[in-house]
Amino acid sequence: GEFLVLVTYSIALVWAGYYSQAGPAYSPLVWALSIPIGFAVFSLITITQFPDLEADRKAGKHSLVILLGVKKTLSIVSLAVSLSMLSVMVFLLTGFIPVWPGVLSLLCLPLVYRLLKLIFRHEEEDISLYIKLSQGTLILTLWLGLAPALGLMLDRWLRMRG
Fold first, then answer.
1. What are the percentages of helix, strand and coil residues in the chain, rounded to 5?
2. Helix (H) or strand (E) holding 85
3. With a threshold of 0.70, does the pTM exceed it?
4. What digits encode the pLDDT tens for the residues 105-126?
5. Quick count: other Cβ atoms within 10 Å of Cβ 71?
6. Chain-centre distance of CA 30, in angstroms?
């Protein structure tokens, strides 16, 4: 389910929004803007399953945290969080996204650092860790959805003025 959420809540939503506004045209920008969101939303949906681990196990669910265990799943979450920022950097440096959407997206680098620090330096795996990780990945997901839109508007506004 986590991978389905990655696709539907990022790539599919961004493409649907693009299609509804621009029609059936192709743009690599759509991919470049949706991939970082996908990694962030994957992190968020995965982290939110940790508090329900025992109940989900008893119910016979097969989430990543049940299939792989807490440590391996936290490693996958840290990878996804890192890839959200790395993909922004790659797309910015290769020109797939304009400067302003990239720069605004990169403003959450301190948040990503904090999330990775929480994952790798946690003392115990208790509910407070998962609450902090859930809050952080939610903010990351929201910002990676909002920042590119603000950046594209700013980019267009600056081009109109200049």
1. 85, 0, 15
2. helix 70-93
3. yes
4. 999 999 999 999 999 987 667 7
5. 8
6. 15
